[in-house]
């Protein structure tokens, strides 16, 4: 079954890879993006890789209902929505919480209202594993208590709760995917993660150091209660995550409403910052200099998924490991030393 899918934030890191997967499956897409932290070049390359022109772009802010109305009226009816658009930097959310509540929660509220108006009630939401807060038991499963410790995670959980209320009140089908830590890039090296300024995430920081854009990596804290003192995360190849979205949307469209799912998307393997540095060095032969600095506000010691529900309900499991994450992420950085702003 081929569908028409609306994707918010489709030019971003995860969004662009998901657009490629969906186009290759034969779906048609309408993407809404304001390019606040992304580039139109990503979508151009997605279409080039997919050899498809079945992607329409509506440029604008998610919080503007006129923009979303224009997207819904741009072609045949939309079968489902994948909602990526939002702000995602933990430290920034601590410094500017009002902006995060406005963009992440209010933007999602406007989207849901416009979907309701157009009779489209099938939604895959980009949530986060940070809603679990600072748990003491691992791996993390979906039935565990949520206790977000920073505004980024708090806004994501609030959206989950709003969508849950919609499912209980009417004929909605919603899946909230709690991502762990997506890294890597498409193996072609044509699309990848392109943060503006100094990266907030570990992996692009490592690749920029390897490329000589940064002199050394900053490791935020080595006094956590973990084996080597650095934070542990469940790193996930972005292509595995992109494929999870296609599988999830297909699953929802085959269910009778109301349907509500909350699913962890991770590998089940926890890697420390030093583990990732070592893995990158082994995969590329490049030494990564680093210095340990103070912890960042909002960071937690450890996050590691229990991915059993994703396999049981969706039939999805991560297929790529750290070697592929490092290889593909480095291929992207080498081919695009300044990201999408690189010269042809």
Structure description:
Helix 1 packs across helix 8 and helix 3 packs parallel to helix 5. Helices cover 39% and strands 17% of the residues. The model has no long low-confidence stretch (mean pLDDT 96). The strands form four sheets. A seven-stranded parallel beta sheet has the order 3-2-1-4-5-6-11, sandwiched between helices. Strands 7-10 form a two-stranded parallel ribbon. Strands 8-13 form a two-stranded parallel ribbon. The radius of gyration is 19 Å and the shape is globular. It is an alpha/beta fold and 344 residues long. It has a single domain, classed as Rossmann fold (3-Layer(aba) Sandwich).
Q: CATH superfamily, please?
A: NAD(P)-binding Rossmann-like Domain
Distance between the termini: 37 Å
Q: In what order do the strands lie side by side in the largest sheet?
A: 3-2-1-4-5-6-11
As a percent range, the share of strand residues is 15-25%
What general form does the structure show? globular
- Helical percentage: 25-40%
Element-by-element helix/strand order: EHEHEHEHHEHEEHEEEHEEHEHH
Mean pLDDT: 96
Label the structural class.
alpha/beta
| Uncertain regions spanning at least 5 consecutive residues | none
CATH architecture title? 3-Layer(aba) Sandwich
CATH topology: Rossmann fold
Using only C-alpha atoms, the radius of gyration works out to 19 Å
Number of strands: 13
Q: Sheet with the most strands? A: 7 strands, parallel
The first-level CATH class is given as: Alpha Beta
């Amino acid at each position: 079954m081929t569908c028409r899918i609306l994707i918010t934030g489709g030019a971003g890191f995860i969004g662009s890879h998901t657009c490629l997967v969906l186009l290759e499956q034969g779906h048609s897409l309408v993407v809404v993006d304001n390019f606040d932290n992304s580039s139109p070049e990503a979508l151009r390359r997605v279409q080039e890789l997919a050899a498809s022109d079945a992607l329409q772009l509506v440029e604008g802010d998610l919080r503007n209902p006129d923009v979303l109305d224009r997207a819904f009226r741009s072609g045949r009816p939309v079968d489902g929505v994948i909602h990526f658009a939002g702000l995602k930097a933990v430290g920034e959310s601590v410094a500017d919480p009002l902006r995060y509540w406005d963009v992440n929660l209010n933007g999602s509220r406007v989207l849901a209202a416009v979907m309701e108006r157009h009779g489209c009630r099938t939604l895959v939401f980009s949530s986060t594993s940070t809603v679990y807060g600072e748990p003491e038991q691992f791996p993390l499963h979906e039935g565990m208590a949520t206790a977000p410790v920073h505004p980024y995670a708090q806004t994501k959980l609030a959206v989950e709760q709003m969508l849950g209320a919609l499912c209980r009140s009417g004929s909605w089908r919603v899946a909230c995917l709690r991502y762990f830590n997506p890294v890597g890039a498409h193996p072609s090296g044509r699309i990848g993660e392109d943060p503006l300024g100094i990266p907030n995430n570990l992996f692009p920081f490592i690749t920029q150091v390897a490329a000589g854009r940064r002199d050394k990596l900053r490791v935020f804290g080595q006094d956590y209660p973990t084996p080597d003192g650095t934070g542990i995360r469940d790193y996930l190849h972005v292509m595995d995550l992109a494929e999870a979205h296609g599988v999830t949307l297909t699953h929802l469209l085959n269910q009778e409403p109301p349907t509500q799912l909350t699913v962890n998307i991770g590998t089940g393997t926890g890697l420390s910052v030093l583990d990732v540095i070592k893995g990158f060095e082994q995969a590329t032969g490049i030494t990564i200099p680093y210095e340990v600095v103070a912890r960042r506000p909002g960071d937690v010691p450890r996050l590691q998924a229990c991915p059993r529900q994703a396999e049981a309900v969706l039939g999805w499991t991560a297929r790529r490991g750290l070697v592929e994450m490092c290889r593909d992420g480095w291929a992207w950085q080498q081919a695009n030393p300044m990201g999408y702003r690189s010269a042809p």
